[in-house]
Amino acid sequence: MNTDRPNRSPLTVIILTFNEEENLDAALESVTGWASQVFVVDSFSTDRTVDIALARRCDGVQVIQHAFENYGAQWNFALTNLPINQPWILKLDADERATPEFRSEVDSKLCAPNTEESSFTVHWRLIFMGRWLKWGGLYPNGNTRLWRAGAARFERRDVNEHAVVEGKRGEIKAPIDHWDLKDLGHWLDRHNRYSALEARSILQANVIGETQPRFFGRPDERRMWLRRLYYALPGRSVLYFLYRYVLRLGFLDGKAGFRYICLHAFFLYWIDLKREESKLLGRSPSVIWPPRGVPHPRLSGNGLASVLDSPISSTVGDN
Q1: DSSP of 50-81, one letter per residue?
Q2: CA atoms of 258 and 94, how far apart (whole Å)
Q3: CATH assignment of 9-181+290-307?
Q4: Cα 49 vs. chain centroid, distance in angstroms?
Q5: From residue 49, how far is each of 19, 25, 29, 77, 131 by CA, in Å?
Q6: What is this structure's pTM?
Q7: 3-class secondary-structure state, position 119
Q8: Quick one: CA torsion of 66, 18, 290, 178, rounded to 10 degrees?
Q9: Residue 230: its H or E element
Q10: Is the peptide bond before 140 cis (omega within 30 degrees of 0)?
Q11: 3-class SS of residue 148
């Protein structure tokens, strides 16, 4: 149990999980004892994810399982149904860690008198094959990850969902760390599914969701502007590689930078291939989902049992 951070931040942390036994404990360690509330919303993992979360009940971690439809729907379920009692909410992935510098800056922002912001943009450091990728336009980055309770909803999008928040937006400059301890096979498997989901969204004319694309806007708005431009270009996966690796100096990250940008360029190429295949076959790109587990037996007695539901078929998504 953490005892080195006695003053809790007025903050609820929410982490969505599915088969995150390699990553979850480090994520929880980075926020328990700091955040006033921590929720893990699991979509019926088949590994030790729920057991790891339950082991931190003494740190105040609360766990619930809910059937997964898509990322936006899972987040909207969490925001609507969890017994959130803090004024601020932080979105944290299971493969991320809140750094000491991040926690300190969040405290200073949230506890400042007369805080006017409705939300904050948060940046993350991508650690790939043991190296922080600083170049290639990969840092600084930023998404809306911190917002006032009740102020946000999520887009109805299968993947790459964004929180929609009105009002003034601030920035947390100190980053969180994105450090996925799963191996490369998991990355390829996950991005195979992501590419099919992204292809589906594009075929449905849902390229950028509800985020306003602006080149001179916030980081997420600039990404949506670039995303819209990207899908209008020929030879785009090659152009993406050249943009990241050459124009944005990704080569300065050495082998790790080359490998990551190559992998991501291939991922984008998969999206285009699946769109073309879909047009030829006359059907939506198929998504191969992993099988889901059953409700964890130790959750029936917790305080969140009233919103616990049953798993749906293994054709649903993963997070």
Answers
A1: HHHHHTTGGGTEEEEE---S-HHHHHHHHHHH
A2: 25
A3: 3.90.550.10
A4: 17
A5: 6, 9, 14, 20, 26
A6: 0.89
A7: strand
A8: 140
A9: helix 219-230
A10: yes
A11: strand
User: Domain limits of the chain?
Assistant: 9-181+290-307, 184-281
The token pair at 163 is: 């929180």
CB atoms within 10 A of CB 76: 18
Other beta carbons within 10 angstroms of residue 255's beta carbon come to 9
309, pLDDT greater than 80 = no
Which residues partner with 63 through β-bridges?
40
pLDDT one-digit tens code per residue, 216-250:
887 778 878 888 888 889 999 999 999 999 999 99
Q: How far is CA 26 from CA 49, 74, 89, in A?
A: 12, 22, 19
What does the alpha-carbon distance between residue 74 and residue 154 come to, in Å, rounded to a whole number? Answer: 9
In angstroms, the CA 183 to CA 22 distance is 10
Element (H, E) at 144: strand 143-148
d(CA 24, CA 134): 24
Q: What is the pLDDT of residues 1-23, one digit of tens each?
A: 444 445 799 999 999 999 999 99
State the DSSP string of 3-43: -S--S-EEEEEEEEESS-TTTHHHHHHTTTTTEEEEEEEES
